[in-house]
Hints:
The chain is of the alpha/beta class. Helices cover 37% and strands 15% of the residues.
Amino acid sequence: MSKNSCNIFLVRHGETLWNLEKRWQGSKNSPLSSLGEKQAMQANEKLLLYNIDIAYVSFLKRTQDTSDIILKDRAIKVEVLDGIQEINMGEWEGKTQSEVQLRYPNELDTFFNSPETFSIKGAETYFEVQNRVVKSLEYIFESHKNRNVLVVSHGVAIKVALAHYCSVPLCELSTMDNPQNGSIICLSNGEGKVSIKEI
């Protein structure tokens, strides 16, 4: 680790029952599936190689349960950080993908293919999500120099943050792979820039 750098181990929560049901979660809770628990345990095994100094999770239980499994038997402080929560999907939350496809076909196409223009009642825009997630990660970088930090977050939240650090505009977001459940990406801010490495 270079001087004054911080390593953020950015993890997407394990698979949930609503993931299995192809149901929009957003800011609502759904428990981890059995596979989701296994994915969290796999992340636990990979991160045993690293000393973790502190952890941050969103207020949603799926990130907290994932963090509990990852940090099993480690006495590490875990803090809730609202800025790393998943995109709020407004009236889509709780509905299945097929229900949304039937009722909101144009908006759904925009969500996936033109995220820079996505807007529905009660939901966040991609720009709003990206701004708050990046602001939260920058806070962590600044507050935990020379530390390793676990951050358990969500699919869209992680993807838009990676787009920022990879200089990919939101209009090209669909060219990036979606973070998989239980995946680990290390962000390091040494030497004036943020480097990205998959663990």
